Amino acid sequence: YGKNTIKFLRLHKEGKKHFVKEVEVCVHLRLTSPQEYLEGDNSLVIPTDTIKNIVLVLAKKNGIPSLEQFAIDICNHFMTTFCQVAYVKTYVQEVPWQRLHEDGVPHVHSFICVPDGIRFCEAEQCRNGPLIVFAGIKDLKLMKTTQSGFEGFYKNEHTTLPERHDRILCGEFFCKWSYGECKDFDFDCIWKKIRECILEAFAGPPDHGEYSPSYQKTVNCIQMLILSRVPQVQVIEAVLNNTFYNVVDMKNLGLTNDKEVLVPVETPYGSCACTLGRKRFFEA
């Protein structure tokens, strides 16, 4: 049981300059006894309102140095404070506020919400067990208008999809990775590096790009680049929900439409997913 959707804004001031972190937190607990379920005995139950207040107090006292560290602080608090807690899991999601710039000068107290992917993390711990940390990015919308195709696929009597060697590749990307046992990582730096890997592998070099023969191959290239550059990542899960675009037929309007006006196919849409990890992790 636990408390979901604890939303708050943490404002930190350094002189005239302000810093903000707006987050949504979920905390789930498992107690050492199921007596509240089986017997209606609530003597060990920490009320969900208390859980909410603890999260707010920790934000006030400790701040949010990183999403991962805040999730770790929450797990540590419940494990060290309540002997009846056998397991705790914390999810933290950030609202993507970015500092405003005017003529290249950063504003001291104004921000803009930029929908370029939402950062999140999870931390979980069993009593007498290691603290495990996950992190990720979701709702990251990506598009490239060429250097993508889909050819040579399996065909039978039900196949109507034509082969394409030049198409728009567009989708909403979700990515979640595991650090394994928690260590003293620079979580902010790692998250930014992984986001850079995602964009680089998806787009390719800026002057000519990188050809994608399928959504599946693109997902795998992203995962492989992350694992090659970020040794702290042990396992990475990725999902790409595809958005397809059809060229509008303008012949009846007396126009030739050379892939200049397209409309998105709302439903159904495709999706591909892959989980990739280091061999030593799966062997363990």
Automatic annotation (TrEMBL):
Binding site for 5-hydroxyisourate: 48-49, 150, 167, 216, 242
GO molecular function terms attached to this record: urate oxidase activity
Lineage: Eukaryota, Metazoa, Chordata, Craniata, Vertebrata
Protein name: Uricase
Catalysed reactions, as listed in the record: urate + O2 + H2O = 5-hydroxyisourate + H2O2
InterPro entries (UniProt xref): Uricase (IPR002042)
GO biological process, alphabetically ordered: purine nucleobase catabolic process; urate catabolic process
Any Pfam family hit: Uricase
Binding site for urate: 48-49, 150, 167, 216, 242
Pathway membership: Purine metabolism; urate degradation; (S)-allantoin from urate: step 1/3
Function: Catalyzes the oxidation of uric acid to 5-hydroxyisourate, which is further processed to form (S)-allantoin.
Gene name for this UniProt entry: Uox
Annotated residues for binding of O2: 48, 242
SUPFAM superfamilies per the UniProt record, alphabetical: Tetrahydrobiopterin biosynthesis enzymes-like (SSF55620)
Enzyme Commission (EC) number: 1.7.3.3
Coiled coil (residue ranges): none
UniProt enzyme class: oxidoreductase
Keywords, ordered alphabetically: Oxidoreductase, Peroxisome, Purine metabolism
Location in or out of the cell: Peroxisome
A cellular-component GO term for this protein: peroxisome
Record-stated family: Belongs to the uricase family.
Major site of localization recorded for this protein: other
